[in-house]
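Hello forum,

I keep getting stuck at the same step: I have a sequence, I want structure tokens, and every attempt I make locally crashes halfway through. Rather than fight my setup again tonight, could one of you with a working pipeline run this one for me? It's a single chain of 171 residues.
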Amino acid sequence: MFKIGDKVWFAQIKSGEDKVLCPECFGKKYLTVILGDDTRVSIECVGCKRGYNEPTGYVYYFKRFVDVFLVTIERMEIEKDKVEYGFNGCYQTKESRLFIDKESAEKEAARLIEELNKEELAKIYTKEKHNHNWAWNVYYHRNCIKKAQHELEYHTAKLNYAKTKVKEEKE
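Reply #2:
Ran it on my machine without issues. Output:
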């Protein structure tokens, strides 16, 4: 147990954005889907698409890194089953994040980072919260194309009929 005034090393973790090659399209930004009639259709990869932006070929995630620093314990909060330490005006932490030497603090921060990064990378390689699968995506867009072709034929026929009426009025 530490006491007020002790100088100890705080094992802190910082994070920043990093990227890995998209596991769906392997950086190509598009996927090729083979339909039941052996037609090949190219579609945008939603695995590496960010919001309304185009696919990037990369999946972004938060990468963590070690950031340990020397602190002076300024306060202690002692409860029935735990002790928390405060320093630099606002930080509050458990004893498990405080160390006498810098190397031990770095090892603990590295261990925590490894654990958190594994969890983060595991999320990348699963389709989480994608509303529809690839088959639905292809079906939807092919259906839109069919509807658009039907609309084009319909409006072309209407326009052609209107042209015959204009000629009749001139005569």
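The chain has two helices and eight strands. If your local run keeps crashing, start a new thread with the error log.
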